[in-house]
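**Tokenised fold:**
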Amino acid sequence: MQTLHLRLPATSANLGPGFDALGLAMSFYLTIDAHTKTAGEAFSIAASGRNPEQCGRIDHNLMLDTYREVLTASGRPVLPLHLKLHNEIPLGMGCGSSAAALLAGVLLANHFGELGWTGYAAMEEACRREGHPDNVAACWLGGMTASAAVEKNGITSIQTASCGEDLNWKILLAIPSASLSTKKARALLPEQYSRADAVANVQSTALLVSAFALNRPDLLRTAMQDRIHQPYRAVACELLPLLLPLAGQDGILGVALSGAGPSVLLLHNGETAAVSEIVRSALGGVSAELLEASIGKGTDVV
């Protein structure tokens, strides 16, 4: 019996100005124990944690669909698997659930199909399937990642670097009750931007990478400001306009939409209980789950 253990972190992309380029791993995880079944048997999943019904589906399951597609494209047999899965990542909330599922599917195919890919090659395949590298790179490497997709001769490769994994900055994630699809969130964005907006985001992104690389929390309030996607997505992310003004107050270092939303990420160095109370007060009567985390490690493959 072949076995594989995976632990993949949640991720928050963009981090304000780093649209489709920056990602941050967070310390809540999708954990999978997989083993092969006898040929001819059916796939099975024992799911626990968040959204067990959705995670435990055999059909329309992004992880299993990716597993099958990669093996079929590689000319390898699709071995049936039993998966024991525990999920801590909110689905459809801008926390990288699809990136974790894609990467898990590729890693399962690489292992059970004996494809011989390196972990980096598996990450690149997942990035190509996701369409942008920010979430998947952070899921694989951990910490804060800066990534770019480079196309040459029809082949897309990913250049990425990670830093900040050992920073002791704390994360508070504010999660609303309703999800928001990435497709809908992208439809809210304009086709063109002014030079002033583009320059402002280039400046903020450079400052944000420096803040993580140099442990400069004092830079985050300015560095996490964005003019490319957050102003347009605020109409569908009711928590964002309520929480953005908290940046720089009472230990709250910076505030940004998590991924494409609708969740909001707050980086802070205060007491979590006190910061949570400030957030609750800012939200007024708006319902939200507050999830505590730290900067996460990369994917474990055993």
User: Anything to note?
Assistant: The two ends are 15 Å apart (CA to CA). The chain has two domains: 3-164, 170-294.
